[in-house]
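Key result, reporting period 2: structure in, sequence out.
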């Protein structure tokens, strides 16, 4: 008998054979497309650190919604840039702000599109932190957890009133999922779902986003509320807490440097799991492709596949539309 008897290459002989035995697939319906709406713009404005991504005027929301649905993408998540910022992020609770207005426009143009909103004050505070500031006993400025979750509950309810299907708190305050769930239910929005940014690390990979959403912290960093990159057991603790507080879906963020964490959370929870392929991951692929170091489309599809293979059911990604174009071809 010839050697070797067992030849895995038999299943790699043709494209059809490979497709037949492929374990992980991608579809446009796996993606959630993040978008930035700016209160003061009248035309789309390119984000220099994120090729192909724009800050949009609310007037573009309807056409965008139709275009996205046409590509088979079922969901978007909206971020807002207000006309004015203040220390408490009050504009984040304004029902005439860019996010609630864009939600209403998108739902009217594409009722089947699942519209999610990011719930966090960092886009609306002048200091760029994800909450209301207070002084601790040492006299340092820190984010006040319990005051912040009151604002988040108000913001989430306002988004639900505007028509959001899902609210997604990204602030990493303790107890915010439970507080938001209670606020939604008390206002009659018991059908509005919560996608919790349950496991969110203090990451360098948010760099380009901070230009996109104009929310770089003006002092210090986010390490007092976002997770330490060295911790994986803590991720399971955060995920379990948010599930117990009533989260409908969980998220791990960022994705690529945390594929092991995606796998661990997937095994620990039966909730649908999302992973955020964040701005820095997106911009690195584009920058390397532009420098002719890698092939853009192949690298993008490989990255997205890896996130699904790690265990994510859904992927928030700025690649959503360009990847869907390839998948639909
Ligand atoms: C906070 C928020 C951030 C991102 C999503 N929501 C920034 C941060 O925590 O600093 C990052 C997303 C990305 O990098 O693509 N509201």
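The corresponding designed sequence is given below.
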């Amino acid at each position: 008998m010839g050697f070797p008897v067992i030849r895995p290459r038999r299943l790699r002989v043709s494209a059809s054979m490979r497709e037949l035995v492929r374990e992980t697939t991608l579809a446009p319906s796996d993606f959630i497309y993040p978008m930035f709406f700016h209160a003061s713009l009248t035309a789309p404005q390119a984000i220099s650190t994120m090729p192909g991504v724009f800050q949009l005027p609310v007037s573009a929301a309807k056409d965008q919604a139709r275009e996205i649905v046409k590509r088979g993408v079922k969901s978007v998540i909206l971020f807002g840039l207000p006309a004015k910022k203040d220390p408490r992020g009050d504009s984040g609770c304004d029902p005439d702000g860019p996010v609630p207005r864009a939600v209403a426009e998108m739902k009217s143009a594409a009722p089947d599109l699942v519209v999610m909103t990011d719930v966090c004050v960092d886009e609306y505070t002048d200091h760029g932190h994800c909450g209301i500031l207070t002084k601790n006993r040492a006299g340092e400025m820190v984010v006040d957890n319990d005051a912040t979750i009151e604002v988040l509950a108000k913001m989430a309810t306002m988004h639900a009133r505007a028509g959001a299907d899902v609210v997604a708190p990204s602030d990493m305050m303790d107890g915010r999922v439970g507080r938001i769930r209670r606020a939604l239910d008390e206002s009659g929005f018991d059908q509005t779902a919560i996608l919790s940014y349950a496991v969110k690390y203090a990451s360098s990979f948010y760099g380009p986003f901070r230009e996109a959403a104009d929310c770089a912290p003006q002092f210090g960093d986010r390490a007092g509320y976002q997770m330490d990159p060295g911790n994986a057991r803590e991720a399971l603790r955060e995920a379990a807490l948010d599930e117990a507080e009533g989260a409908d879906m969980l998220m791990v963020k960022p994705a690529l440097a945390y594929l092991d964490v995606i796998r661990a959370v997937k095994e620990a929870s039966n909730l649908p799991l999302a992973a955020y392929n964040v701005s820095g991951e997106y911009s690195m692929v584009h920058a390397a492709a532009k420098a002719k170091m890698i092939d853009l489309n192949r690298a993008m599809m490989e990255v997205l596949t890896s996130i699904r293979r790690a265990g994510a059911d859904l992927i928030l990604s700025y690649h959503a539309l360009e990847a869907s174009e390839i998948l639909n071809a």
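The chain has one domain: 25-224+231-328. The chain is about 35% helix and 20% strand. This case is discussed further under Risks and Mitigation.
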